[in-house]
Amino acid sequence: STMERTYIMIKPDGVQRNLVGEIIKRFEQKGYQLLAMKLVRPGKEHLQAHYADLAGKGFFNGLIEYMNSGPVVAMVWGGFNVVAEGRKMLGATKPSESAPGTIRGDFAVEVGRNICHGSDAVASAEKEIALWFKEGVCEWNPSRNAWVYE
Ligand code: DAT
Ligand code: MG
């Protein structure tokens, strides 16, 4: 579709397993633009707000415990169709269904330890960016854009 922004997060297991650089590398090499990034441990209330849509699920409490177990890397990436393309790069929610070559397909085994998050739609991306980056993001014009976009 169009130029978009998405919220990408490296979950506590991704941080603990030293996959931060690997995951950032894939988005950076693809040609997407880093707009914001921080290492944070925001607490349960914030994580419950992030996953509010899943509050009725049986795995919700376990999900919040897992997400609260250590710092996460919160990022905003921009680019053409980056919401859907970013989800493709992460792979299916269940690593057992994630294709090899995707982040989850290459580095994760279980759904409850799937190492990364990506917004599922433009509207939820904007909601998540507002939740995680109340301070706003960084506006800049990458000089490489002329070599990524025609
Ligand atoms: P995604 O992260 O691919 O957007 P989701 O929004 O449906 O998937 O769920 C959010 C997270 O919750 C997911 O990354 C891992 C966890 N989760 C989802 N389904 C689960 C299940 N059936 N059992 C355990 N954890 C699950
Ligand atoms: Mg989701």
TrEMBL record:
Domain Nucleoside diphosphate kinase-like: 3-139
GO cellular component: nucleus
BP-aspect Gene Ontology terms: CTP biosynthetic process; GTP biosynthetic process; ubiquitin-dependent protein catabolic process; UTP biosynthetic process
Binding site for ATP: 11, 59, 87, 93, 104, 114
TM segment ranges: none
Single Gene Ontology MF annotation: ubiquitin binding
UniProtKB keywords: Kinase, Transferase
Active-site residues, record numbering mapped to chain: 117 (pros-phosphohistidine intermediate)
Keyword set includes RNA-binding: no
Family classification: Belongs to the NDK family.
Protein name stated in the entry: nucleoside-diphosphate kinase
Biological source species: Thraustotheca clavata
Whole-protein residues included: 440 to 589 of 590
